[in-house]
Here is the input.
Amino acid sequence: MFRRILTAAMVIFVIFTTGSVAQAQVEGNGVLKGKAYFDLSQGLSDDVSTMLTNGFRRVYFTYNLKMSDTVSGRFRTDVKQDADGKYRLFIKHVYADWTASDMLTIRSGMMGTPLFGTIEEVWAYRGVEMTMQDYYKLRSSADLGVMARLKLN
Here is the structure.
C-alpha cells in the first residue's frame, strides 16, 4: 500500500514540479490557462505517516481576452497555502492593454511589476523555489496603475 502511495506521489511530483500548464480555448477570443506548483518533501522520521508531506505551493488561473487587434486584457487569480494550512484565493492581475502603435502599448489596471518579471527570468527556477524578492516579501509582485511601454529601435 505504501509503495502505491509513494509511486502516485512521485508521478504527481514529476507533473507538478515542472510547473504543469493546462490551457483551453474559450468561446470567442479568450484563452483560459492554469498553472500549478506542487511540493513533495520526504522526512527522516521513523513514523510512516509523517515521512511524506506534500501540497500545492501556488495555483494560477488566467483568462486572456483579445477584444480587437489593438485592445486585449487579462484576469489572473492566485491560490496559495497560508501558514495555517488553508488555501486562499486572491486576484493577482486585472488589466487592459491598448496597442496604440507598433512602438507604444499602454496598460492600465493591476499588473505585474516589470522588475519582478526580469528577476524571475534571471532566476529561471520558479518550479524549484520563489525568488528571494518574493520569498522575503521585499516588494509586491503586482501594482495598480498605468504603464506605457515604448519600443525603441
The helical segments are 2-17, 114-123, 132-135. The longest strand covers residues 52-66.
